[in-house]
Amino acid sequence: MKTILTGDRPTGKLHLGHYVGSLRERVKLQNSNEYDKIFIMIADAQALTDHADNPSTVRENILNVALDYLSVGLEPAKSTIFIQSQIPALFELTAYYLNLVTVSRLERNPTVKNEIAQKNFETSIPAGFLCYPVSQAADITAFDANIVPVGEDQSPMLEQTREIVRKLNEIYGEVLVEPNIFLSSNETCRRLPGIDGKAKMSKTLGNCIYLSDDAKTVAAKVKEMYTDPLHIKVSDPGHIEGNVVFTYLDAFCEDKKTVAEMKEHYQRGGLGDVKVKKFLLEVLEETLTPIRQRRAEYENNPAEVMKILKDGTAVANEKASEVLQRVKRAMKINYFE
Ligand code: TRP
User: Fold this and answer.
1) How far apart are CA 169 and CA 327, in angstroms?
2) Which residue owns the Cα nearest ligand 1 atom 5?
3) Which residues have C-beta within 8 Å of that of residue 326, sequence separation ≥ 6?
């Protein structure tokens, strides 16, 4: 069996970084028809680990993220889209997995460490937040997922999941499937910089192009994109390293030959930013136009979207309950079976 599980926290709308880093890959995997099951999870419980005081944000973004999923081409007939908090088995599994993990191991998780620094939690780290990699291990194993397509920042989570799986299997017998990470093969896509040239496109940094941005907004954002500050006159030789416009062309343009020629021309001098940006905008619009069209179909029908989530959640519940039963049996806590 080849099973995929992945997901996102509903803390905001999804952007181009999510798209090239993970969403585009998911859709490709879905349409390859090589996978037996695909589960896509909206991780609202994980979002609450650092948004406990802001339930409205999480609630509103359930629909935003679902719309983003459907608009990029995830299809409910092929991919089960569901909501994490509605799957009780995940929380039971988490409780048992927590016994197999030390606090010091949790504190060493590089992604969690980064987030703690970023959020200025310092000494007031919510316990649930520190433990979210363990709940993520539950998310993955509850579906017997062996392939987890995610962005690079999630690789410490996969590593920790694999440790938990090995430990549990060692103690209770071969019960859990050990998952593998699936990263985008395009290096540029693994960490898309923001339009300001900063290392990462991120809502907090305010440097995103959202999948739901309209054409006018995208044009304005491309216009203000960071290029080469030393490239003043069109005739000046320009730099392409750190020049976001070229980075985005690498991530989005299928026509590698044209991009290579433009890079060469830019470096030689004589190619202006305005022209390159115009070309990038065309390329981005090729991606975004069909996404906007699909979004428009669903946007006017939130009830249909909620029905998709409800049906997906029922399917997910069935699978996760089966795996939970299997684990409980192995742990000898299946008293009434
Ligand atoms: N941590 C992921 C994120 O920040 C969301 C997530 C939760 C996830 N559980 C998962 C991703 C399981 C992959 C597999 O977006």
Assistant:
1) 10
2) 8
3) 175
Please write the tens of the pLDDT for every residue from 176-220.
999 999 998 888 888 899 999 988 898 888 999 999 999 999 999
Buried b (16+ CB within 10 A) or exposed e, 208-220: bbbbbbeeeebee
Question: By the 8 A CB rule, do 161 and 6 touch?
Answer: no
**Residue 5: strand pairing partners:** 39
Is the distance from the beta carbon of residue 9 to the nearest atom of ligand 1 less than 6 Å?
yes
What does the alpha-carbon distance between residue 129 and residue 88 come to, in Å, rounded to a whole number?
A: 18
Are 130 and 106 a contacting pair, CB within 8 Å?
yes
The CA 254 to ligand 1 mean position distance, Å, reads 28
pLDDT tens readout for residues 2-52: 999 999 999 999 999 999 999 999 999 999 999 999 999 999 999 999 999
Question: 117 C-alpha to center of ligand 1: Å?
Answer: 19
Angle of CA points 12, 321, 24, to nearest 5° = 35
Q: How far is the CA of 6 from the centre of ligand 1 (A)?
A: 6
Q: How many secondary structure helices (H) and strands (E) does the chain include?
A: 16, 5
Residue 144: predicted pLDDT = 98
Show the tokens assigned to 300.
């006017």
Residue 284 near residue 209 (C-beta atoms within 8 A): yes
pTM of the full structure: 0.95
> How many other C-beta atoms lie within 10 A of the C-beta of residue 29?
20
> To test ligand 1's pocket by mutation, which of 5, 90, 150, 158 has the most ligand atoms within 8 angstroms of CB?
150
Q: What are phi and psi of 87, to 5 degrees?
A: -115, 90
Q: For residue 119, what pLDDT band results from cuts at 50, 70 and 90?
A: confident
- How far, rounded to the nearest angstrom, does the alpha carbon of residue 64 sit from its chain's CA centroid? 14
**Burial of 160: CB neighbours in 10 Å, binned 0-12, 13-18, 19+:** buried
Q: For 71-112, write each residue's pLDDT tens digit.
A: 999 999 999 999 999 999 999 999 999 999 999 999 999 999
CA separation for the pair 146, 101 (Å, rounded)? 21
Kind and range of the H or E element at 144? none
* 5 Cβ closer than 6 Å to some ligand 1 atom: yes
